[in-house]
Structure formats: structure tokens, C-alpha cells
């Protein structure tokens, strides 16, 4: 008898030992260690947090939506792959073949819904957001009825990519976007978006800001020798007045771009104009400072271009939240100028000590910085896809009391929002 | 009707121009609240008033009357009122603010903001200088990071002598050397001894220099000149050996042309390197076609280049030299000849040396380098290759001779040409040539008889009595002027009289 019980305990122990590594609490314990050091690591050089590898730290389940939500839309217009909102499509493709993807939704930490809401383009190539709320709502209805995971948390462990102008507010005009607010169904989900401005309706807590998509091959093709001396002091190419929509100025860019033009058009140090030169990328590599002012929305692909080409970005957008702000020390890399200080821009820039400028250039030269701003095809380690996953991993483990609802508890109001949004898509 | 249509079109234009479709109406066509109608009517009224007035008047009146309490952005001080009521006029009307749903009032509001322009939007020269210093520092850092890692001092060897074109040539060379971003020592060997002319020229450069004289005068024939230049260069190499200068020796002839990439490229040399030299062999004659004809006869279409020749694996296999056979008939032998000035087979200018090769007690000196003392009495050193036992150790530079960064040229004035010392005309030149006076409109043509006689009789007369001719000329001028004035006066008076009549 004793022998038998001994043998049974041995077998049981052996079973437990083998099962130990795959048990849930161990993994979350390890993750907890990571999570206890969220933001102190950014001090000093960039790249501490940027070099983290998300594989093994989280699991993502990708919903299989009918192709009318993604593939068919892309087939209608291939331009969606090259415009600045292409991140939503590339993220989907990356996740499908990534190591963090799991086919078992029970073990997933995050759920991804591939719906391309920014792919309804005008002939000019600008996305129309009018059908996007209905599309998103229809997709959420689908996943909530076909899988139990939405209702379990009402979306708190789901993430969506909404790279449009004002994120999930789904409008290009700021006033209208603020009126609409974030889509009510997305109140609890994590939003991955390009828009970021503090104290703004369209940026909710816990969102992850990403850079707009800029084509990596095109930029690589225009690289020039690093020995070429940087002889332009400040460089900018773009609109100062949006003559079609705001001829007098004052609305566009909150008057900041017009102020730049009026104050510095005669200044020999400022190479600014509205032209579209073919040597735009090469010129940026010959400049020390590149202006990145706001437009109709505070973010712009100029930031990405400036980082890739080693030109110190001068960010003129009050209260902007820059991409991966918890991983990249933007204050150390770029120069932030308040919109009210634009008339004194030349004084501000020339009074920066040279050592500070050289340090910023060294930080910009860090390859992990440049890699974090890009969406290369196929994905490489340290790129923007991985930074998004790192951001999602940093939000783990889910706070059990908030994320998962008690049975029968309902928080979201499925009939909230403008009447037009409730129509089926 | 018309007004509302205008407003509608303005609102639609804002959205439609942006997106190209009027799909906006479906979303919020029905949301016309009281306030927006009121603002529309007000806007229409203001438009009417400004139409009547003829300029856009400020809506400050309404703002002052109905000033809303909270976050309106009012900027008064730094603004400038434009003269014309154009795009740049600022209005401090109430911002169409839409407060967000959250309780925290944001610092940034939506709506119309003013365009801030400072009262004097012109660059401050002090700041421009600061910016230039920043640019300079950044470029220096770039050079340190991506340029040559441990730049060596350059030692430029220039044989020269005083003649008319010396200033022309030396100024070019001087400015090229001043632009070189590395340390430089300029050794100038002057034929005929050290002169003040050359010293003052070199001093303008501000470069560290060693100026020595060579006790032979520069001969008139090109062949002899080449020989003497080679001797002068050897003399300079001896100086380098004595002073134990450390760096890269480069032979900078004063009439050659050097590009800035040359100085970056030669930093790559280890012991002795060779570059491609473009030969601008031109003819002194007035007709430029003689050289090109001869060139066409020689069946070439590209400018001749001297330099190293490599095989496909970039190893030195031979030399491209200047084939002077087609031109020997037309070549110039003396400096005054109207012929083509030809270079040697391989010019010194295409070679660079590590100065340590010249040192006497240098322990790591390679076996193939001969000692300089062996060449003490040698008459004609055609090229530095004679310094080597084995010519295959030469390193080809400039992508194996594919890049031409230095051009050989010899241009000289006639041997009897004179020039003012230091190019300062003081006292005035002895040779006077009359200048043509511009004719007064009514005056008869002037007869410059006396001056011509002086000139025709040859320079001797002018030399003997320089002052006299000058004084007489000036008197003549003054007299002429007075004559002109009186004549003009007469003419005017006569005209007036005729008019009066």
C-alpha cells in the first residue's frame, strides 16, 4: 500500500513539474516584473525600451472577418497601400504571420479586428470617414455575436487600428470630430492611432500613438552620403495657407504655419516654400533643423522623414502627443516650440547651445530610433510593428476587476451616437 | 436667399474642396441650431456692410458687445495691422469654440486664431552669425565622423618665379590651399632668389609657409624650365628632410588647377600615390584651332589624361602618359612661341609622397626608396618615379585613376612683358596712351594731334619727358573743356535767342 501511494505521489509530482512551465500564474508573474519598470527606462539614450522583443510577452488573436471588411476594400483601391494611413493594412498582414499570433483565443491576451476603415478614398486620394463608424459598428456586432470574447470584456482586451486624422472620432474636421467624440462602442478598447493631443476628446487614456506610414523603400532610395555637409539651417516644404478651405488663414494650423511664413519668408536661414521639389528627401539630409508644424491635425509624416534623415524636428503643435511617447525621449531629440512663440523661432533656434544640437543629432543617428518609425515590408525587429506590440505588452497583465465584466454586467450603450451611425453597413 | 446660398457654398466649399464630395450633407444636414443660424445672419450682415464700405471692417464691435466669458484667444500686442485689407489682416473675433465633453478645459481650442507677426519680421544679423557658427560646428563634427579619420598634414611644394602671370597663378593656388580643411605647410621655392613680390603674395594667404630662394634664373625654353622646376622640387624635398616635416607631400605647381576632392583623396596614401592629371595643353597662338586640329589628327576625342593604369582587379599595371609625338611639330619651345605647350611624359603634379620616405634616419623606410642625396647633381629628374627602385609600389588613387581632380596647364605672358610691381600703379605708368574722349553732342570732332605725335615718335620721347606730356595734356584737357563749355553756352544762347524770336 505504502509503495503504491509513494508511486502515485511521485507520478503526481512529476506531472506537476512538467506542467509547471505552461501554467498561467508563472507567466503573468514574469510579466509583472517587466511591468514594474514602466517609464524609468527612457532616461538617457533612446533604445532601452525600443529594443525589447515582444515575442513571448503577449499573445494576439486575429479575428477572421469576412473579406468585405478588409480584402475587398483593398481590392477596390490599391492606393490604400501607399498613403499615410496604410499602417492598418500592414499591421494586419504583419500580425497574420507574426510569432505573437495565436490560433487559440483562450490563451490570447489581446484580440485584433482587421477592419480597414480608412480605405474609402476620393479621386484625389483622401479618405472619407463618413461610412467608417457604421463599418466599425458592423464589425463589432459580428465579433460580439460570433465569439464570446467581446461580451466577456466589452472590448477592454481588444485593440483597433484607427490611423485617420482624429482617430476614432472618424471625421477630418476637428469641430465635427469633437462633436462626435470617440465611437461609443470603442470606449473600452485600446486604440492604436496616429492622432495624439493632450486633453482632447479623440485621444482616450491608454491609447497607443503610432507614426503615420511613410514608404521605407522610397526613403532608402534617396539617401545621400553622410559626409555631405549640412548647410541648410531650417528646412520646410508645404502649405502655409490652405487656400481652398481657409483662404484668409487663421483656421489652418491655428495660424501657426501662416505665422512662420510671414515672419521668416525673407530670412536667409529659413529655406521654406510651398514647392514640391524632386530633391525633397535629399534636401532634408542637408538641413540641420526641419520644421514639423501642425496642419489640420497635429501629426504629420514630416516627423518620420526628419527622424530617418537625421534632421532635428522642430515640433510646433501645442499639447501634441508624439508616437511611442513612453518609449522615445522626444524632448531630448526634437525641439518643441509653442505656437505663440513662432515669431521668435529664429532667436530660439540660434540660442540652442551647439553641444545640445550635436547631442540631438547623435540621438537621431541611433538606428533603433529610425527603425521604430518605419513599417518595413517584411517586418524587422525594432520597427513600428514591434513597438506597437511592446506598447500592448506593457499594458499587461489585464486588471481583472476592470477588464473582465461580471456575468450580466453591461457598460456599453449600443444605441449611443448619431442616428446615422446605427444604420447597418 | 443669395446670402444663405453664399454661406452654404462657403461651408460646403470648406468641406468639399477638401474632400471633393458633398457627402457631408448626409451626416449633419439637419443640425441647424439657433446659434448657428444667428451667426450666419450676422456673418451675412457683416459681408453686406463691408461690400458697402469697400473694405473688410473688423468685427471687434460685435466681440466687444457680446464678449463670451471663457476661453477666447485674444492677442493684441504682437500683432501688426496690414495696410491693405488683404489676407494678412487680423481679426480678433470670437473664436467659434466648441467646448469638449470632458470637464478638463483644454489649453488648445478649435476655431479661428490670429496670425502672429512680430513688429520687425527681419533677420537679426547677430543671430544670423550665430546660426552660421552653428552650421560650421555641425559640419566640422560631420567631417570628424564621416570624413578622414586621422588627417595628416599636407606639405605643398610650389616652384615659382616673378613674372607677369605669377599673381594670377599664385592667387588661384593660394585660395585652393586656404580652403583645404587640414593642416598645411606651403614650401615655395623661388627661382632667382627670394623677392618681395612673392613674399607679399604668400603672406596674404595666412598659411604656414617656408619660402626659399633658388640661385638660378628661370630660363626661356620650356624644356629647360621643366628641368629647373624639377631641381627646385628636389631642393624642397631636401628641406623637408632637414626639417623632418611629417605629412603628405603634394606637388602644387602654381599654374595648375586643383579640386577640393583631391585633398581628401590624397589622405588615403600610404607611401607613394599617383593620380590622374588632366592635360590642358593649349596653344599660345591666337587661332585656337591649331591644337584641336592636331588633336583630331591624333584621332582622339577626349582630353588627354596622365596617370596610373589599372587592370580589372584595381592593381597598377602601367601608366597613361601623354603622347606628344603628334604635336612635336607645332609645339612651343620657347616661352614666346606661338605653339602648343607640352607637358612631360609624367608630370610631378600627379604624384604624392609620404614625407617619412625622405627622412634620413627613418627605420621603417621601405627598401624601394632611394636616398635623396643620390640625386644631388642630376640634371633632369623627369618624375618622382626615379626616386624608386621599384615602380610597382605606387598606389593608384582616385578610384584607380578614374577620377581626374587636378589639371595641368601652362600659360605665360611674353618674356618681355612688364607689369607694375605689386600690381599697384604708383607712380603712374611711363607709357601713356591717349584715351578717347566721349564726344559732346554739339562739338566738332576733337583733333588729338599733339598726343599722337608724342606716341608715334616712340617710347623714348615719352620716357624722357613724362611729366611734361602729362602737364601739357592736362592743360589741353582743361582748355578743351572750357572750349566745350563756352561753345555750348554760345549754342544755348543762340538757341534761346532763336526761340525768343
Automatic annotation (TrEMBL), chain A:
Entry's Pfam families?
Exostosin_GT47
- The main place the protein resides is Golgi
List the GO molecular function terms: 1,4-beta-D-xylan synthase activity; glucuronoxylan glucuronosyltransferase activity
Q: Does the keyword Oxidoreductase apply?
A: no
Q: Which domain of life does the protein's organism represent?
A: Eukaryota
Check the record and name the InterPro entries matching this protein: Exostosin, Exostosin_GT47
- Entry GO terms, CC: Golgi membrane
**Membrane topology label:** Single-pass type II membrane protein
Would I find Transferase among this entry's keywords? yes
What does the UniProt entry say about where the protein is found? Golgi apparatus membrane
Which N-terminal residues, if any, form the signal peptide? Answer: 1-19
Name the family the entry cites. Answer: Belongs to the glycosyltransferase 47 family.
Q: What is this protein called?
A: Exostosin GT47 domain-containing protein
The organism of origin for this protein:
Trapa natans
Automatic annotation (TrEMBL), chain B:
Q: Name one GO biological process term.
A: glucuronoxylan biosynthetic process
Key words, A-Z: Cell wall biogenesis/degradation, Glycoprotein, Glycosyltransferase, Golgi apparatus, Membrane, Signal-anchor, Transferase, Transmembrane, Transmembrane helix
Which Pfam family, any one of them, does this sequence belong to?
A: Glyco_transf_43
Q: Name one GO cellular component term.
A: Golgi membrane
Basic and acidic residues bias: start-end ranges = 486-501
> Which GO molecular function entries does the Swiss-Prot or TrEMBL record give?
galactosylgalactosylxylosylprotein 3-beta-glucuronosyltransferase activity; xylosyltransferase activity
The residue ranges flagged as biased composition, category Basic residues, are 465-485
For this protein, what is the EC number?
A: 2.4.-.-
Q: Which residues cross the membrane?
A: 37-57
- SUPFAM superfamilies to which the protein is assigned, alphabetical: Nucleotide-diphospho-sugar transferases (SSF53448)
**Which residues does the annotated region (Disordered) include?**
456-501
Localization in the cell:
Golgi apparatus membrane
Matching InterPro entries: Glyco_trans_43, Nucleotide-diphossugar_trans
Q: How is this protein positioned relative to the membrane?
A: Single-pass type II membrane protein
Q: Does the keyword Transmembrane apply?
A: yes
Q: Which family does it belong to?
A: Belongs to the glycosyltransferase 43 family.
Which function does this protein serve?
A: Involved in the synthesis of glucuronoxylan hemicellulose in secondary cell walls.
What is this protein's record name?
A: Glycosyltransferases
Where does this protein come from, organism-wise?
Trapa natans
Amino acid at each position: 500500500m505504502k509503495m503504491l501511494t509513494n508511486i502515485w505521489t511521485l507520478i503526481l509530482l512529476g506531472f506537476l513539474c512538467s506542467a509547471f512551465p505552461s501554467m498561467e500564474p508563472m507567466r503573468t508573474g514574469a510579466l509583472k516584473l517587466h511591468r514594474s519598470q514602466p517609464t524609468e527606462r527612457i532616461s538617457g539614450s533612446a533604445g532601452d525600451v525600443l529594443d525589447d522583443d515582444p515575442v513571448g510577452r503577449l499573445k494576439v488573436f486575429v479575428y477572421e472577418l469576412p473579406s468585405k471588411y478588409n480584402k475587398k476594400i483593398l481590392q477596390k483601391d490599391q492606393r490604400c497601400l501607399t498613403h499615410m494611413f496604410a499602417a492598418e493594412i500592414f499591421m494586419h498582414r504583419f500580425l497574420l504571420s507574426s510569432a505573437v499570433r495565436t490560433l487559440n483565443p483562450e490563451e490570447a491576451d489581446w484580440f485584433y479586428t482587421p477592419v480597414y476603415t480608412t480605405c474609402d478614398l476620393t479621386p484625389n486620394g483622401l479618405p472619407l470617414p463618413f461610412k467608417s463608424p457604421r463599418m466599425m459598428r458592423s464589425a463589432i456586432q459580428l465579433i460580439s455575436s460570433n465569439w464570446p470574447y467581446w461580451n466577456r470584456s466589452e472590448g477592454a482586451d481588444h485593440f483597433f487600428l484607427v490611423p485617420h486624422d482624429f482617430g476614432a472620432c472618424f471625421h477630418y474636421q476637428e469641430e465635427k470630430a469633437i462633436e462626435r467624440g470617440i465611437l461609443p462602442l470603442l470606449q473600452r478598447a485600446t486604440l492604436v492611432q496616429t492622432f495624439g493631443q493632450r486633453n482632447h476628446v479623440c485621444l482616450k487614456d491608454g491609447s497607443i500613438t503610432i507614426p503615420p506610414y511613410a514608404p521605407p523603400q522610397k526613403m532608402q532610395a534617396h539617401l545621400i552620403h553622410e559626409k555631405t555637409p549640412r548647410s541648410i539651417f531650417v528646412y520646410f516644404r508645404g502649405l502655409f495657407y490652405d487656400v481652398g478651405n481657409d483662404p484668409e488663414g487663421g483656421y489652418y494650423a491655428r495660424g501657426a504655419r501662416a505665422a512662420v511664413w510671414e515672419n521668416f519668408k525673407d530670412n536667409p536661414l529659413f529655406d521654406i516654400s510651398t514647392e514640391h521639389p524632386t530633391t525633397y528627401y535629399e534636401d532634408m539630409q542637408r538641413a540641420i533643423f526641419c520644421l514639423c508644424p501642425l496642419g489640420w491635425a497635429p501629426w504629420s509624416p514630416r516627423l518620420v522623414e526628419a527622424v530617418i534623415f537625421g534632421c532635428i524636428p522642430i515640433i510646433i503643435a501645442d499639447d501634441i502627443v508624439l508616437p511611442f511617447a513612453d518609449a522615445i525621449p522626444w524632448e531630448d531629440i526634437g525641439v518643441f516650440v509653442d505656437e505663440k512663440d513662432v515669431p521668435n523661432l529664429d532667436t530660439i533656434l540660434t540660442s540652442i547651445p551647439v553641444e545640445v544640437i550635436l547631442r540631438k543629432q547623435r540621438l537621431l543617428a541611433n538606428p533603433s530610433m529610425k527603425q521604430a518609425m518605419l513599417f518595413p515590408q517584411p517586418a524587422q525587429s525594432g520597427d513600428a510593428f514591434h513597438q506597437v506590440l511592446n506598447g500592448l505588452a506593457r499594458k499587461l497583465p489585464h486588471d481583472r476587476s476592470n477588464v473582465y465584466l461580471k456575468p450580466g454586467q453591461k457598460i456599453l450603450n449600443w444605441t449611443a451616437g448619431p442616428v446615422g451611425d446605427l444604420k447597418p453597413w | 436667399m443669395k446670402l444663405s446660398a453664399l454661406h452654404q457654398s462657403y461651408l460646403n466649399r470648406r468641406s468639399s474642396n477638401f474632400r471633393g464630395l458633398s457627402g457631408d450633407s448626409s451626416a449633419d444636414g439637419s443640425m441647424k441650431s439657433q446659434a448657428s443660424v444667428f451667426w450666419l445672419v450676422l456673418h451675412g450682415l457683416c459681408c453686406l456692410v463691408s461690400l458697402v464700405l469697400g473694405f473688410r471692417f473688423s468685427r471687434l464691435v460685435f466681440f466687444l458687445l457680446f464678449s463670451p466669458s471663457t476661453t477666447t484667444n485674444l492677442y493684441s500686442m504682437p500683432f501688426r495691422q496690414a495696410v491693405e485689407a488683404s489676407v494678412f489682416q487680423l481679426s480678433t473675433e470670437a473664436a467659434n469654440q466648441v467646448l469638449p465633453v470632458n470637464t478638463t478645459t483644454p489649453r488648445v481650442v478649435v476655431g479661428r486664431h490670429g496670425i502672429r507677426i512680430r513688429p520687425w519680421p527681419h533677420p537679426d544679423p547677430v543671430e544670423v552669425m550665430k546660426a552660421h557658427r552653428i552650421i560650421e560646428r555641425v559640419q566640422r563634427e560631420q567631417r570628424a565622423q564621416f570624413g578622414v579619420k586621422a588627417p595628416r598634414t599636407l606639405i605643398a611644394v610650389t616652384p615659382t618665379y616673378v613674372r607677369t602671370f605669377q599673381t594670377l597663378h599664385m592667387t588661384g593656388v593660394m585660395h585652393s590651399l586656404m580652403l583645404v580643411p587640414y593642416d598645411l605647410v606651403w614650401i615655395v621655392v623661388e627661382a632667382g632668389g627670394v623677392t618681395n613680390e612673392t613674399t607679399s603674395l604668400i603672406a596674404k594667404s595666412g598659411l604656414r609657409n617656408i619660402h626659399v630662394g633658388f640661385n638660378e634664373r628661370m630660363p626661356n625654353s620650356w624644356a629647360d624650365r621643366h628641368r629647373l622646376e624639377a631641381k627646385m622640387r628636389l631642393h624642397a624635398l631636401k628641406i623637408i628632410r632637414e626639417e623632418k616635416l611629417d605629412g603628405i607631400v603634394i606637388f602644387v605647381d602654381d599654374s595648375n588647377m586643383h579640386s577640393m576632392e583631391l585633398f581628401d583623396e590624397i589622405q588615403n596614401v600610404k607611401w607613394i600615390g599617383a593620380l590622374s592629371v588632366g592635360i590642358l595643353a593649349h596653344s599660345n597662338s591666337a587661332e585656337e584651332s591649331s591644337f584641336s586640329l592636331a588633336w583630331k589628327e591624333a584621332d582622339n576625342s577626349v582630353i588627354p589624361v596622365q596617370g596610373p593604369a589599372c587592370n580589372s582587379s584595381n592593381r597598377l599595371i602601367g601608366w597613361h602618359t601623354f603622347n606628344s609625338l603628334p604635336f612635336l611639330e607645332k609645339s612651343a619651345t620657347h616661352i614666346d612661341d606661338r605653339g602648343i605647350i607640352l607637358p612631360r611624359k609624367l608630370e610631378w603634379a600627379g604624384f604624392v609622397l609620404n614625407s617619412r620616405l625622405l627622412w634620413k634616419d627613418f627605420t621603417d623606410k621601405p627598401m624601394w626608396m632611394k636616398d635623396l642625396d643620390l640625386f644631388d647633381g642630376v640634371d633632369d629628374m623627369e618624375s618622382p618615379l626615379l626616386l624608386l627602385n621599384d615602380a610597382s609600389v605606387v598606389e593608384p588613387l582616385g578610384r584607380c585613376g578614374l577620377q581626374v581632380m587636378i589639371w595641368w596647364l601652362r600659360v605665360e605672358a611674353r618674356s618681355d612683358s612688364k607689369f607694375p610691381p605689386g600690381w599697384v600703379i604708383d607712380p603712374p605708368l611711363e607709357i601713356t596712351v591717349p584715351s578717347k574722349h566721349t564726344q559732346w553732342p554739339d562739338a566738332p570732332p576733337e583733333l588729338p594731334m599733339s598726343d599722337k605725335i608724342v606716341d608715334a615718335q616712340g617710347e623714348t620721347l615719352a620716357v624722357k619727358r613724362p611729366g611734361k606730356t602729362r602737364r601739357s595734356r592736362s592743360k589741353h584737357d582743361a582748355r578743351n573743356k572750357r572750349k566745350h563749355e563756352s561753345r555750348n553756352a554760345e549754342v544755348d544762347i543762340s538757341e534761346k535767342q532763336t526761340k525768343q524770336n
